[in-house]
Every structure is written in C-alpha cells, then in structure tokens.
What we know:
Blueprint: H1 2-34, E1 54-60, H2 67-73, H3 79-86, E2 100-106, E3 114-118, E4 123-128, E5 134-139, E6 142-152, H4 157-163, H5 168-177, E7 193-203, E8 209-221, E9 224-232, E10 238-241, E11 261-264, E12 271-272, E13 277-278, E14 284-287, E15 293-295, E16 300-307, E17 313-319, E18 323-333, E19 340-341, E20 346-350, E21 360-367, E22 370-372, H6 390-406, E23 416-417
Bound molecules: zinc ion.
The site of zinc ion has 5 residues, from loops.
Amino acid sequence: MNRIRLIFASVLALCVMVLIISIKDRANARSSTSSATSHTVVVEAPPPEPEPVLLSIDHKIKKGQTLGTILQSYKISNTSGIVTAAQAYFDLTKIQAGKSLTFTKFDNEVDYLSLSYAIDEDRKLVVELGETPTARLDEAVFVKSLVTIQIHVTRTLWQDATEEGLRPGDIARLANIFQWEVDFARELQHGARFMLVADQHVREDGGSKKLGDIHAVKLENAGKTHTAIHYVQKNGEEGWFSAEGAASKRPFLRSPLKFSRVTSRFNRKRYHPVLKKTRPHLGVDYGASRGTPIRTIGAGVVKFAGRKGGYGNFITIDHSGPYVTQYAHLHKIKVRKGQRVKQGQIIGTVGSTGMSTGPHLHFEFLVRGRHVDPTKVDVPTVEPLPKSERTAFFAVRDQWLPMLEQGKDPVVAEVDTE
Ligand SMILES: [Zn+2]
C-alpha cells in the first residue's frame, strides 16, 4: 500500500514539474513575442470547475429484489438505519416490484444523497442518506373546486374517463352509482355521455387532479337518460336518488326463502360431503322441507330453467346490472327460460335433485360472472326518500340540475384548501 502511495506521489510530483516547465516555456515564448524587455511570467487561470450536476437515478424494483440487495448494488450500506428512519411513514421492507426507488447524487461525488419511494399517487417517502439517515413524507397539496366533467365514451369508458383526469377508483365509483340500472360491461354503448358535478382536487404544483365527492351524475346511454343526485338525509344516511327522489338502489330480498336457516356457508375451500374431497362451495345452502316455495330475490329474466348436472333442477336469473342469481336442487321449477320475473315471485320449490344429500336450496349470487358470498354481498336496504326529506332534497337537486343540463366548462363556485 505504502509503495503504491509512494509511486503515486512521485508520478504526481513529476507531472507538476512537467506542468511548471511547460507553463514557463509558454510564458517565455509569449513574453518574447509580446515584449522583449519584460520578464513577467503570466500564468493563465485554470478553467473553472464545472458546476456539479444533481443526478436522479430511477431503479425499477424487480421481482425478488429486497431493499438490502438494491442498496448493496448502489454500494449503500446501513440498510437497517434507513429502514428505521423511514419506519414512521412506511415500512421499506415492503417495497413492491414494479415500483421505483429513486436515488440522487452529485455527478462528481460517490455518495448518494437521498432515496425516495412513491407510497401512492400523492405520498412520497424521502430518506436523506448520510451517517444518520432521516426521513420525511412529501405529501401533495390539493386545491378544491367545484367542476363539471363531461365524458364522451368513444373508445372505452376506462380510456375516455382517464383522459378526463379520473383515476381507476373514480371510474369504479362512477360505475357503482348506476350499478342497479346499467351493466357497464355489457350495456354501455359507444357514444354514451356522462356529465358529472363533482369536487375536483388539483395538485398545487399543477400535477395530477383527483376527483373528490361526486354530487350529481347524468348518463345518456342507449336512448335513455339516467340522473343520480347524491343526498344526505337528516339521519346521516346517504345515497343516490333520481331527480324525482326515488332511491336509485333496487334492493334484493335478503333471502330466497321466507323462513330459512343457513346450513352450509359460502366457502372457497370446503370439504365436499358427497365427493369426499375439497371442493369450493360457491353458494349458501338453506335447509327447508321439500316443497317450500322459493322466491327470486330480484326482478329479472330467466336465463336457464331445467336440469343441469349436479345442480339438479336449476334456475338462473339475470338481474339488471352485473347481477345473476342461481337456485339449485329444486323439486319443481315454476318458470320458463326467457320469462320476466318480479322481485319475490315464486320460481320453484325446495327439493333434493342432483348431487344433494337431502332437501335444501343451494343459492348462488354472481357479480360480473364471479361467485360472491350472498350473505356478505352489499345488498342495499335504502328505502325511497321519505316525504319529510323531499323539500331539502329538491333544493339540493335544483342546485345541480342546471349544471348537469348545460354541461358548461368547469365552473369555480368555491375554493378552499384542504
Ligand atoms: Zn350448496
């Protein structure tokens, strides 16, 4: 080590000497041309050092990478100190593949200054590195204003709404408002128009926007106009109502049997008593004696009515929106395929047909083709608006309706910071 240093020092000394000599020579040469009498040596100032540039390096986290392995690859030690510093805001051991860690450093230095990680769209964790790392949370500041937003569906609702500044969660909220009237997967047509009156939160730094509360929505689709006004009742219950004050939610009955008890619950990993192996139970069983009347829990159209393998005598009913219900092991079927049924209508009776150990109703609830637990699905219980609420509701409605109708560009009615 010492020898290397010695050699390095000698080489350096030699270089300096050569440099001095060359400067002298040049100076001599210059002085001899400019002035033969002067012997002043002029040494030119070295060129100014370039300003250091702050680099920002994005590291995309790959599957299986941990904070430790990533930091190692950047020659940053003290992983535990960094994790500890960040702990109050975010657990850095839970970084997600696909996201990025951003490192900063000056181009002329070896050590990194900071690392940051976007926790979500609006919150960024920043850790200042160094001997004792310190962390802070950079949170976006939003300014709220009341706006109208028009979405014209020309490609997909997803694309067109995203273009208008809606986030995935906002689009889901929008779809939920009309879930009882329109199946967005199947029934939303090209050319449909949404008009929203909503709070919009715009990032103070001019960055992203996000939708706050939605107050009213109008949807024009397939020649029909759907209007939904958000209203909070005096008792705090809130919901969506049509312009006339009718609840837009169309409740399902809680159960297809009037008096019933659940004998087998919804279970994705149930041990099947007949098959004697693990088989998901994608419905609920209601114990009842043979011949007990079965009601459809909602209005709809019969899509299937007949024998179907282990289901025995089986009925499928397609309800408005993304909802489908199915009824199995029936003794008698009392509807036909294609028939319209009203909520609560008797569609058959309890039996034990198909793969069944005794009389019971096996009942399934599907949302967008996926089985869900009928006892846990968010079955709405909203009643139509009571008479005592109507005056207040109409006042709210009349505040929003003109904005929905005119479809003006954003109107700023109130501004305050959150
Ligand atoms: Zn069952």
